Every structure is written in C-alpha cells, then in structure tokens.
Amino acid sequence: GDSVTQMEGPVTLSEEAFLTINCTYTATGYPSLFWYVQYPGEGLQLLLKATKADDKGSNKGFEATYRKETTSFHLEKGSVQVSDSAVYFCALRRKDTGNQFYFGTGTSLTVIP
Amino acid sequence: DVKVTQSSRYLVKRTGEKVFLECVQDMDHENMFWYRQDPGLGLRLIYFSYDVKMKEKGDIPEGYSVSREKKERFSLILESASTNQTSMYLCASSPGGESSGNTIYFGEGSWLTVV
C-alpha cells in the first residue's frame, strides 16, 4: 500500500545551519506530495506541495523537489531560524484512492540560538 | 482562509464516559477526516467521510464512531472512553474532486485525557 517514510528525529541545529529532512514514498500512480508543519500546541499547516515529477515546492525559504526516479521529496532550507522549530510531516495524496492522505511519522526540529 | 474549528482544545474525561469531539469547517469541503496523533506514531486515520451521512473506516476505527449529519460538521464519538484513548485528536477537511493536488486543512487539535 501507499506509505511515506521520513528520517527519524529529533534533529537539533544551530541557527543559520543548513537543514535537510529526508522523505521517501511508496505509491503506484502519480501522487501529489506535501510538507506540513506543526508548531507547538497547534494543528498542522501546509508548508509546500508539488503535484508532478520535477516540480519544486517552496515557501518561507523551504524547498522540496518531487523526484520520481528516487521516489523522494526531501525538505531543505539554507539557513534555519529559531522560529523554524516545529515538527515536519511529509505526506502524499493519490487521486485514484479516493481522498486519503498518507502521512509520515513526523520529524521534530529544534533550532538553538 | 479555510477554517477548521474543533470545539474543545482540552478535555479530561473518566473511563467509561461517552465523549463527543465536534468539528466544523467553513469552506464547503466534501471530505472530512479524524486523526489521532501520538508520539512516535505520527498521524493515524480513524475515520473519514466524503459526503453527508457517508463514512469510511480508517486505520484505527476500533472504539470510535462518527457522525456527519451536515456537510460542515463531522463528529467523533468515543462510546466508552478508555485510558488508551488519551491522545491528541485532529480534525481535517479537503475539497472533493479529481485533482490530487487538493490540500488538506487541519484544526488546532483536541487534547483528550482519559483518567
């Protein structure tokens, strides 16, 4: 079945460090891919998305490229800030399985000053 | 902006009580979802609904039921709460249709503690 695998955390970085959070997926067909962010005590918010191969999603300095050949959608940011501390979820959605979204287990990021 | 509102942020209930978690969305979305979130397990789908009065089981439906009498409202019911149902519950909605790029929108979550 469809699934998403994220790198395990927690991840701790110093401010202005480079961030990569790995995400790979398993799905037949052509899913859309998403990154969601959850700040402490809140629900999940959409960070970025990509709907087809080679698309790049970007928002707030974060980027992820849909790589069909490696079934990956790694999240990157060139210079993290303390305010980026949150839990990040990778997700996919396939239109031919109804409207279900499949989420990874989440990666906790802490950025220290 | 899409708004998904969960009626209670924090609840404490006793074992065996019947618990209702209410969720309302204001964007006329066809699809609504209930997830629970636990440390190390991520989000697990309990139930979802793609239309009024329709419901589908997710990955962990045992001990839960749902109700969707109106398009904008999706309720999660714990018939007899147990301590292993202590968790954060997230409601979400998304548009229907064929586009797989449609986004899912979440409420702020309901923290349920069963004692």
Can you describe this structure?
The complex is a heterodimer of chains A (113) and B (115). With 113 residues, chain A is mainly beta. Chain A is 0% helix and 50% strand. Chain A has no helices and twelve strands. In chain A, strand 7 and strand 8 form a beta hairpin. The radius of gyration of chain A is 14 Å and the shape is globular. Chain A starts with a strand and ends with a strand. The mean pLDDT of chain A is 92. Chain B has 115 residues and is mainly β. Chain B is 0% helix and 51% strand. Chain B has no helices and twelve strands. In chain B, strands 2, 5, 6, 7, 10, 11 and 12 form a seven-stranded mixed β-sheet that branches. Chain B has a three-stranded antiparallel β-sheet with strand order 3-9-8, with no helix packed on it. The N and C termini of chain B lie far apart (37 Å). The relative contact order of chain B is 0.33. The mean pLDDT of chain B is 92. Chains A and B meet through strand 5, strand 6 and strand 10 of A and strand 6, strand 10 and strand 11 of B.
Low-confidence stretches of chain A: none
Main sheet summary of chain B: 7 strands, mixed
Strand fraction of chain A:
over 45%
* Count of individual helical segments of chain B: 0
**Share of helix of chain A, binned:** under 10%
Largest interface: A-B, 26 and 28 residues
Distance between the termini of chain B: 37 Å
- Most strands sheet of chain A: 6 strands, mixed
Alpha carbon gyration radius of chain B: 14 Å
Query: Per DSSP, what share of the residues of chain B sits in E-state strands of 2 or more residues?
Result: over 45%
Number of E-type strands of chain A? 12
**Secondary structure tally: strands of chain B:** 12
> How do the SSEs of chain A run, as a string of H and E?
EEEEEEEEEEEE
Decide which structural class fits the backbone of chain A.
mainly beta
